[in-house]
Amino acid sequence: MTPPPDWQKKIMHISLNVGQTCLMGSDLWGEHFVKPQGYHVSLQIDEPEEAERVFAALLEGGEATMPIGETFWARRFGTLTDRFGSIGW
Description:
Oligomer: single chain
Strand order of the largest sheet: 3-4-5
Distance between the termini: 33 Å
Helix content: 10-25%
Number of strands: 5
Structural class: alpha+beta
Low-confidence stretches: none
Shape: elongated
Number of helices: 1
């Protein structure tokens, strides 16, 4: 598939390295596009300070649905919807 001319300067594929983990994604256009729905992205980060840093970065331009903090099951846990509409736990 060849993207249409107005997509030539858009990002088609992405890989995001978080520590030893690689998160990958891609876009579809035209008749192949389906609005993303029904998924969550979860990250497990051992150090509370690093979890807070990553949460803050993902939150930029988004909305926290549960601010990051200590819970009875985790030293840090939070949920958010990022600026692209992805939901993270």
